[in-house]
Please model this.
Amino acid sequence: MIDGGGHGGVVEGVGRAGATALLVLATLLASACSSPLPDAESREARLYAQECGTCHVAYPPHMLKPAMWEMQMGRMALMRRQRGLPPISAADEKTILAYLTKHAG
Ligand code: HEC
Model:
């Protein structure tokens, strides 16, 4: 016998603890996923999360280059129109784009 045996109970115990740890980790990750924006408490970040986090998560600003954010803002204005939502005000759009550009990748 290579395996001395008698370890079954121990392995099973570790397995159960591991499963619990994984569940805790998954819960933590799920809650962390929606939050960390740069300067999360600033007015710009809140506005961004509010206006751009309704149909999908507010994507992290570093995900795109400034020029690509500008392009996405135009596309998203179209998305809103297609869904019958009122457009974001020009001032708010400017604030959001400035925020995204400042933290862009
Ligand atoms: C009316 C719903 C709606 C709102 C509000 C909205 N989006 Fe979107 N957005 C979508 C949909 C639907 C897609 C996926 C389809 C697509 O990319 O053509 C998308 C995709 C994106 C993508 C592309 C993601 C990728 O993987 O390529 C970016 C970036 C984005 N949105 C940014 C924004 C920003 C910035 C705002 C705020 C100005 C915003 N969205 C607000 C509906 C919305």
Observations:
- The CA atoms of residues 40 and 46 lie 7 Å apart.
